[in-house]
TrEMBL record:
This is SAM-dependent methyltransferase. GO terms for biological process: methylation. Gene3D superfamilies: Vaccinia Virus protein VP39. It comes from Amycolatopsis antarctica. Keywords: Methyltransferase, Transferase. InterPro entries: 23S_rRNA_MeTrnsfrase_RlmA, Methyltransf_11, SAM-dependent_MTases_sf. One of its GO terms (molecular function) is S-adenosylmethionine-dependent methyltransferase activity. Residues 53-140 form the Methyltransferase type domain. The keyword Transferase applies. The keyword tRNA processing does not apply.
Length: 252
């Protein structure tokens, strides 16, 4: 038995994965960050907003890190473990934390919001965002791009069909249909490296769409192969795809 492999996998399988904080990977995995600096852009937009809505806030970590938020800031989240963490992180800062269901309906009246933000939304509710924004209001989002972490996905699942559902073209078309004009659109491919198999297990448990249905026992043989590959080469490399999209709501 390879005790190193078993220990790394067991440790990563036992770590809680709620929230959207990846601090457990410090020293075990690295990922380049987009050059545009989403948190900095969000802080600048928040400083100009009277009413702001952060969609799919996760554990609220990004929003909590913004030095100044809009006087009325609402954060919505649907996954109960993240909702609990967001409440702890955001309510002491004066942010209203609201449970949102899977049905795409945002808890604000039409035309009342100056800024809607979303970092890495699972699904972007374009029509709802367009509904709640006031004319001239801003939607700012950093999105997971097409074929992100494809190298990691294909290591476990083999070659995958092309899926353009997360393409920038789709995002632009959806924004325009929802009554918004795109004023900024940027994309980058960023290197990610995993330095031990435990980091891979943790990542796949947390970012569940990378390998849908991932379970350690189900993929133990591939994890063992991953362990050997990292031991021989020093790391496993993959590329995350990110794009920034900023829109303005058209006048009524």
């Amino acid at each position: 038995m390879d005790r190193e492999f078993e220990d790394l996998v067991a440790e990563a399988a036992a770590v809680p994965v709620d929230g959207w904080d990846f601090a457990w990977l410090d020293g075990r995995a690295t990922e380049e960050r987009p050059s545009w600096g989403y948190a900095r852009l969000l802080a600048a937009r928040m400083a100009e907003a009277g009413v702001a809505l952060d969609v799919q806030t996760g554990g609220g970590e990004v929003l909590a890190g913004v030095g100044r938020r809009a006087p009325l800031t609402v954060a919505v989240e649907s996954w109960p473990p993240n909702l609990a963490r967001a409440s702890v992180n955001l309510r002491p800062l004066g942010v209203h934390v609201v449970a949102a269901g899977d049905v795409p309906r945002l808890p604000l009246r039409a035309g009342t919001v100056d800024l809607v933000s979303a970092r890495h939304p699972v699904t972007t509710w374009w029509d709802e965002i367009g509904r709640v924004l006031r004319p001239g209001g801003t939607f700012l989002s950093q999105q997971v791009g097409q074929a992100t972490m494809a190298e990691l996905t294909e290591f476990f699942l083999g070659p995958q069909p092309v899926d353009d559902s997360r393409s920038t073209g789709r995002a632009v078309a959806a924004a325009e249909r929802a009554g918004m004009d795109v004023v900024d659109l940027r994309s980058e491919s960023l290197l990610a490296e995993f330095h031990d198999v435990g980091a891979v297990v943790y990542f796949l448990r947390k970012v569940v769409w990378t390998v849908p249905g991932f379970e350690v026992d189900r993929y133990r043989d591939r994890l063992r192969a991953m362990h050997e590959r990292i031991r021989e080469g020093g790391s496993f490399q993959a590329y995350t795809k990110r794009f920034l999209v900023e829109t303005r709501k058209r006048p009524a």
